[in-house]
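[User] At your convenience, examine this fold.
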Amino acid sequence: MSAESPTLSPPETPRRRAGMMDRILSLIGSYHIAVVVFLLMILLTLLGTFSQKTLGLYESLNIYFTSWVVPREHWLLGFIPLPGMALLLAVMFVNLLAGGVIRIRKNWRTVGNVIAHLSMLGLIAAGAVSLYYKQEGHMRIFEGESSNRVQAFQDWVLEVREAGGADPRVYMIQETAFRTDSPSETTALHRTGWPFELKVSGYQKNATITTTGDPSVLAGSRSIDGYTLRPLPVNPQHEANMAGIFLDAVDLSGKTVGSTVLAQVIRGGEIVTRPDAPFSFMVGDRQFAVNLTRETWEVPFSLKLDDFKAEYYPGTSKAKEYESNVTMTNAAGKDTKFRIWMNNPLRDSGYVAYQTSFDNVSPPGQEKYSVLTVVKNPSDQWPLYSMIAATVGLLITFLTKLARFIRRTAVPVTPPAP
């Protein structure tokens, strides 16, 4: 009886030990992080949507959607901290890049998945570019008139210029530089080369100018030349709020060379321009002017409103559709005719002009104006390109899986016997 030879098993292939970078990519690209981020996004979307009723759209966007961290006064249940949507999208971008692009197996079967993930990265990148680099405002044009100036919807600025001086530039100080939590706080503003300092106090998010004897103003409130600020209820629609401040101009020796109250004046429900606007003061033999206004800027073209048309629903004052026929004059002096109506904007020089509103309160026969929203957004077309890429990626994935399914389920045909 012969002894059986022992059966030799093939040697085991040693497993490759994952390096530190592999472990890091595996962690940040995991499904667990993706699920947590998605759940938090849903929570922030709900909170931001419900808060619009009391806070308004602008504040809700700033608190929940454009912030990195939700401010403490808006934490969940008052004590649970929340990340902002900007932070969640940044985490999602890294998660998709690590798990859906870098770590995914690269072969013909995963081409569609890689393209789809890249398209999602493009959408997030478009949102980031839009958040930090988009300019948006409105242009109001009467029939027969032209304009190349755009005014912001929300942002207030202090415009400072030297009247008749050697420096023709207009310096703009953003509202964030002088906005305070309490009207009792004072903010000092100075720029190198200015022979003065501006001291801003009494900041109100929404206010108008009134006389000192107004009974609606608290006793002891500051007044200048018989005028003071009357606070108004903060409107949830942020663009309806009109900032108000007390302004003191102080020269470098500490002497006050001018003081005023800056705010919009409301008469009969209409905003009127003060006869002494803008506020001016002298420092030595140099005259300076300061004005509180919405931020404005010029675009590299002008629009002339040739004709405005509006069609109303029968028996109502509600517009069914409206359009602006304009002539655009570019920097080279070339004129081009455009028709702008809902969902059909003008696109030129990197700008987009949408038809958003018009004058629907003036009586018949009176000149009307058209309101165009003008946007400059470097990532304007990125979402479109991303969605096209996503469609292509998903179509490739679907067709690839369909082809594999057909091959697996195909029944071989037996040729008939001769």
